[in-house]
Design goal:
Elements lengths: L1 H15 L5 H18 L6 E2 L10 H5 L29 E8 L5 E11 L3 E18 L5 E20 L2 E14 L2 E15 L5 E15 L7 E2 L3 E8 L6 E7 L6 H6 L5 H6 L2 E8 L4 E8 H7 L10 E9 L2 E11 L2 E11 H10 L1
Parallel strand pairs: 1-9
Antiparallel strand pairs: 2-3, 2-16, 3-4, 4-5, 5-6, 6-7, 7-8, 8-10, 10-11, 11-12, 12-13, 13-14, 14-15, 15-16
Length: 355
Amino acid sequence: MIVVYQAIKRHFYRNNQMRITWGHQILKQAMLMVCFFFFGQELYGQSAYTFLHVPANARLAALGGVNVSLNDRDVNLFSSNVALAGDTLNNFGSLNYQFYLADIGQANFAYQHSFKKIGTINLGVQHFNYGSIDSYDATGASLGTFTSGETALMLGKFYTSNAFRFGLTFKTIFSNLAGFRSAATAIDLGGLFIHPKQNLTIGLAVKNIGLILTDYTESSSTRLPFDVQVGTTFKPQYMPFRFSLTAFDLTDYASFEASNTSATVLDQVMRHINVGTELLLNKNVNVLIGYNFRRRQELAVETLGGGAGLSFGLSIQIKSLELVMSRVSYGPRQASYGFTLASNIGKMIRKYEKI
């Protein structure tokens, strides 16, 4: 990672003849943190805050749940890779809700604004509600019900240099599981290459590098769900399709190998692959299709897949308002549904001020 930082630093000097700014100092510190956590930290304990892996908006859910390369399309995608939200999304805001089984649900808010002195900033709130759960003691006597939920507050910042874009997302995470509370802080690193001539992007995200501030109990030894994701999005010149291919969870193969020793090498590799496709009917209507191989293998019922791993969606632009709907299948008659509303809030405010 230090070699990568030095290469980026030389790139700035050669192409821009600029001094290292405050932003580059942050990048250097973040890269060093990655080196520490990636190479020097022993990952003991149980991973917590796994809601951070759940797609927080309808577009991402419809495309399979993982994407780090679909740029300048959706302000919500900064939570996947902060480099995906370019300047064209300034003043865009979005509200999202995902309906899961029973009364489990997830709400998400995202907004991007450009400030004169500090540039573009991304803001986001992700809240996962596990609903009401009945509680019983060892004898089976009812103890009533309790609620559980987890929340992440996100602040993102990106920088652009020629065909490259990179950035940081700072997270503060809170968890309340049946009265047991925990808090953590983390950062995501994101990078993106945008081909200057072809409709091609390549993205990289290093996610959830951080520290547990307070654990659930004194004996707990939880850790953040560290992840490395890399992917590409491309559109053939004369086809109304845009394809995304993403590899995820690239640092953890052991857990799957331990639970399924009979799996082939190909099966092990494919469980780290997500495929998303967009059918671009016109500039206002897109059809979204995704396939997550891991979800298929882990949730499919024997002799009856039930559509596990498949996801579908529809994006509709109605004047200045965009509506995205998704359906994600988890098995026979089991699915989640998501809805996203997005618009240029600044443009809407200026429009109403003229009235």
